[in-house]
Design a protein that fits this description.
Ribosomal Protein L4, Chain: A; 2 domains; elongated
C-alpha cells in the first residue's frame, strides 16, 4: 500500500510505500483486547486506602463496663459501628500491574496500525517542523490536513518538543515518538498523521 506525502501547507508530494511488515498484518482482535486491558490496568495507581479498626488511632480503653448499664456491650470506640471508627471492606493499596509477552505487544501494535491502514485512516506528512510551541501552529496544520475536530495522533521520529508542547492543551490531539506510540493511543485516534521520518523508524523497529 502506498500513500501520497502531504506537505505542511496541505499540498501533495510523491507517494511512499507503507512497510508491509507493519501495515499489512491481519489484525488480531483478541491480542489487541488483551493489550488494552493490560495497558489500562497498568495506568491505575492503586493508592486508595482506608483504615481498619486496628489502624484508627485511639480506642484503647473500654468505653463503659460490660454489664449493668443497660447499654449494648462495647469494647472500643473505634468499632466500625461507631462514628470515627474503622472501615469494613474498604479499598486498600494494591498493584494492578499486568504483564504481557513482548511478541504479543508487537502484534497488537502491528494489528492497530494495519487496521488504520485498511480503513484509510493514515496520512503521511513530509515533516512536523513547527517554528514554536504555540497551539496555533498545530491548529493551522489540522485545518490544512482537513482533520479539524478529529482525534489525531501525530507520530514523528525522535523527541520533537515544539509539536508536543503545542498539542498539550488541544483535546483529542497527541504527539508521540514512533517507537514509543502505544497501541491504545493508536486505536483511540480517528486518524494517524505519520511523518516520513517516523514511518522509516516504524519500519526499522517492527520489521
Amino acid at each position: 500500500m502506498s500513500l501520497a506525502v502531504l506537505k505542511m501547507d496541505g499540498s501533495t508530494g510523491a507517494s511512499v510505500e507503507l512497510p508491509e511488515a507493519v501495515f499489512g498484518v491481519e489484525p488480531n482482535e483478541a491480542v489487541v483486547h488483551r493489550y488494552v486491558v493490560n495497558y489500562l490496568a497498568n495506568q491505575r495507581q492503586g493508592n486508595s486506602n482506608t483504615k481498619t479498626r486496628s489502624d484508627v488511632r485511639g480506642g484503647g480503653a473500654k468505653p463503659w463496663r460490660q454489664k449493668g448499664t443497660g447499654r449494648a456491650r462495647v469494647g472500643t470506640i473505634r468499632s466500625p459501628l461507631w462514628n470515627g471508627g474503622g472501615i469494613v471492606f474498604g479499598p486498600h493499596k494494591r498493584d494492578y500491574y499486568k504483564s504481557m509477552p513482548k511478541k504479543q505487544k508487537q502484534l497488537a501494535i502491528k494489528s492497530v496500525y494495519s487496521d488504520k491502514a485498511q480503513r484509510d485512516r493514515i496520512k503521511l506528512l513530509e515533516n512536523l517542523d513547527l517554528a514554536d510551541h504555540k497551539t496555533k501552529g498545530i491548529a493551522t496544520l489540522l485545518d490544512k490536513l482537513e482533520l479539524k475536530g478529529k482525534k489525531v495522533l501525530f507520530i514523528d521520529e525522535g523527541a520533537n518538543l515544539n509539536p508536543y508542547r503545542a498539542a498539550r492543551n488541544m483535546p483529542g490531539v497527541k504527539v508521540s515518538r514512533a517507537r514509543l506510540a502505544a497501541a491504545y493511543d493508536i486505536l483511540d485516534a480517528d486518524y494517524l498523521v505519520i511523518t516520513v521520518a517516523g514511518l522509516k523508524e516504524l519500519g526499522e523497529v517492527f520489521s
